[in-house]
Design brief:
The chain is of the alpha/beta class and about 450 residues long. It folds into four domains: about 20-120; about 125-165, no CATH class; about 180-320, Up-down Bundle (Glutathione S-transferase Yfyf (Class Pi), Chain A, domain 2), CATH 1.20.1050; about 335-450, Rossmann fold, CATH 3.40.50. Helix content is about 50%, strand content about 5%. It contains 22 helices and eight strands. The protein has helices at about 25-40, 50-60, 75-80, 85-90, 105-120, 125-130, 130-140, 140-150, 155-165, 180-185, 210-215, 215-230, 245, 250-270, 280-295, 300-305, 310-320, 340-345, 350-355, 385-400, 410-425, 440-450, and strands at about 200-205, 230-235, 275, 305-310, 335, 365, 405, 440. The strands form two sheets. It has a four-stranded parallel beta sheet with strand order 2-1-3-4, with helices on both faces. A four-stranded parallel beta sheet has the order 6-5-7-8. β7, α21 (about 410-425) and β8 form a beta-alpha-beta unit. The longest helix is centred in the middle third of the chain and has 20 residues, at about 250-270. It is globular and about 70 Å long.
């Protein structure tokens, strides 16, 4: 038996349509097996809070071993998992193809799915996970929603906390008053016919819930950069990728989302378009999670093969055709947080590669979790843990002392900025970090091209 593995990790499909998957006794037995391996290894102690919780349960148990941990306590470990995949991708030496075949995130997902089927999903959590409905409705009352959800509006936020379970101090996404789809129709994107890639690439941008309903500037920056490089774009958002529902263990809903979105995107693939997902979590779903949830669906596999993460796409254009001229240095340098779901795509640090295309610009990389984990980090019971997990990344960004902070994950970017403000305040009361906002790397690239104004 090998002690560990240096081979690339591989993943088995989620066998959620097999009755065995839902057997609680079989699940408990598998969790005990994996927890035994984790207890004997402990390499993941400094990742998410799942591992400290597990090790504390073992160490404080009657036997000092996993058999001394009550089975009902297994849920405490699962509840701290954000499905970031970092243990699987970067730490664990026992992932497949090793014979022990440890896949901790998908085991936690299985536990979550079994509990969701057994007890049902909380009504409020189910509504919060319906990001398409809330996003579209929110465009009609964006100003009111942004006022009500601002963390500085404590009376309203404490009331919302009682209703939604979202911590009154957690920074929430701003609501856009117009979808990215509509903005793209209104603004247009004239192509640069002198660009090396002109006439050679065209892309359909999968808008994603976050960009479509919250941060349309990311989408506008993407279209501007691609147009500068001669790449024709179309914008579509047929439905959410299902990541918020995956976090709840609702695998059937994720499968439905995969079928809906793939049916809308594949006709574009047939017309020769590349599919570009504008956020890493959604790219991860299209490229990796959907094929594991629907492994025998040829449409899902074909879409996965045609999909690019946004930073990956820009880098591919640069390497294959070359970028258009005109990039100018970014004053003050950039601290780039590598989003967990970008790293989980196993494509390399494409966000850093993309920003390093900007001449004479320092790019300092932060390879620590922001702690947010999607909706997970905003919940009342998790927010303080999310701040604790994100503090090393925030301190690294402060130490870098750059003029800009960025993350490919917009939620991680905002959370990281908030934790930076907290950490700076701890060091010097009323002290604010040098960057006053967090960007997506594509926004910085667009400004380096002179395509977008620098926010004041």
């Amino acid at each position: 038996m090998r002690e560990g593995s240096l081979e690339a990790p591989t993943r088995f499909p989620l066998d959620w349509q097999n009755p065995w998957f839902w057997d609680e006794k079989a699940l408990e037995k598998e969790m005990e097996r994996v927890f035994e391996i984790c207890h004997g290894c402990r390499r993941c102690f400094n990742l998410c809070d799942s591992f400290p919780r597990l090790f504390d349960l073992v160490d404080n148990g009657a036997t000092g071993e996993v058999d001394g941990v009550a089975k009902e306590k297994y849920a405490d470990v699962e509840e701290a998992c954000t499905l970031c995949d970092m243990c699987f991708m970067t730490k664990c030496p026992y992932v497949p193809p090793h014979e022990w075949a440890v896949d901790f995130p998908h085991l936690m997902l299985r536990h979550r799915a079994v509990q969701a089927r057994k007890h049902g999903i909380d009504f409020v959590q189910r509504q919060l996970a319906d990001t398409d409905r809330s996003g579209r409705l929110g465009t009609f009352a964006a100003s009111l929603i942004n006022w009500a959800t601002d963390e500085r509006n404590q009376p309203m936020r404490r009331t919302l906390e009682k209703v939604t379970g979202l911590h009154h101090g957690a920074r929430l996404p701003r609501q856009a008053g117009e979808t990215f789809e509509l903005r793209a129709e209104r603004e247009g994107a004239p192509l640069n016919e002198a660009a090396p890639a002109f006439g050679k690439r065209k892309a359909v941008l999968y808008a994603t819930c976050f960009v479509n309903f919250h941060s349309t500037d990311i989408g506008a920056a993407t279209r501007a950069v691609l147009a500068k490089n001669g790449v024709e774009t179309e914008v579509v958002h047929p439905a959410c990728c299902g990541m918020p529902k995956l976090e709840l263990g609702d695998l059937a809903a994720v499968a439905d989302a995969a079928r809906t979105v793939s049916a809308a995107l594949l006709p574009w693939v047939d017309k020769g378009y590349d599919v570009v997902a504008l956020t890493p979590s959604c790219a991860l779903m299209l490229k990796f999670e959907w094929p594991l949830i629907l492994p025998k669906d040829p449409a899902i596999e074909r879409l996965a093969q045609a999909t690019f993460d946004l930073s990956e796409y820009i880098v591919d254009i640069a390497k294959t055709h070359g970028l258009a001229e005109g990039l100018q240095p970014v004053e003050g340098g950039i601290s780039l947080h590598l989003a967990c779901h970008a790293r989980a795509q196993n494509m390399g640090a494409k966000g850093a590669e993309m920003l390093r295309l900007i001449p004479k610009t320092r790019v300092a990389v932060i390879e620590r979790c922001s702690g947010h984990g999607g909706l997970w980090g905003a919940r009342t019971e998790n927010f303080e843990v999310a701040v604790k997990v994100g503090k090393p990344a925030a301190q690294a960004a402060l130490k870098n002392d750059t003029g800009h902070v960025a993350s490919e994950c917009p939620l991680a970017a905002e959370h990281l900025m908030q934790v930076m403000e907290m950490a700076a305040g701890e060091q010097q009361p009323e002290q604010k970090p040098r960057p006053f906002r967090a960007d997506h790397p594509i926004e910085i690239l667009a400004r380096a091209y002179g395509l977008m104004e620098t926010p004041s």
